[in-house]
Design a protein that fits this description.
Blueprint lengths: L8 E4 L4 E9 L2 E4 L2 E8 L2 E4 L4 E3 L2 E3 L1 E4 L2 E3 L2 E9 L4 E3 L2 E8 L4 E3 L2 E3 L3 H14 L8 H6 L2 H6 L4 H9 L1
Parallel strand pairs: 1-3, 2-4, 3-5, 4-6, 4-7, 5-8, 6-9, 7-10, 8-10, 9-11, 10-12, 11-13, 12-14
Family: Belongs to the bactofilin family.
Protein name: Polymer-forming cytoskeletal protein
Organism: Natronogracilivirga saccharolytica
Length: 162
């Protein structure tokens, strides 16, 4: 009897919400719902137009057609389509952003990109924002003054949004 080779795919549907913890899959993962946790996949992760991820994504390849808020790392390629939006750092061997696609964050490409971005992110996570700085005070600082401050800008943005 011949054995069929089937690639099993995990799917998170449109009306699904996953929060707390971490998702780990060995196959491809397609997300059409809301995921509020970190994701690790040995295969490809696809965030559809209706999908939203709030957490980091690590996979072989990653396609973003919806929204991703968190750092994204791929051993192969990250593709952001014209409808895709990423708020976070990208690290991959190759990165492709279609016209209209949005990426707000750092980007590192090349064979060792995922390792390099982990090192930079770890260093940035150790920097603490000054507790007493306001959004208006931050706007008044010159770029040179901002560069001289040891601030985790992502945490500060999140803190001032509340």
């Amino acid at each position: 009897m011949a054995q069929n080779n089937i690639d099993y795919v995990s799917f998170i549907g449109t009306n699904s919400v996953f929060s707390e913890g971490k998702i780990r899959v060995v196959s491809d993962l397609k997300i059409s719902g809301l995921v509020e946790m970190d994701i690790e996949s040995k295969g490809k992760v696809i965030v559809t137009e209706s999908g939203k991820v709030k957490g980091s994504i690590e996979a072989a390849d990653i396609n973003i057609h919806g929204e991703a808020d968190g750092d994204i790392s791929a051993t192969g390629m990250i593709m952001i389509s014209s409808s895709g939006k990423v708020n976070g750092s990208l690290a991959a061997r190759y990165v492709s952003i279609d016209d209209g696609g949005i990426c707000n964050g750092r980007m590192v490409t090349g064979e060792d990109a995922p390792n390099r971005i982990r090192e930079k992110t770890a260093a940035a996570d150790q920097a603490l924002p000054p507790e007493n700085i306001t959004q208006n005070e931050l706007k008044e600082l010159s770029n040179e003054q901002k560069d001289g401050l040891d601030i985790d800008w992502k945490s500060l943005r999140e803190k001032t949004r509340r």
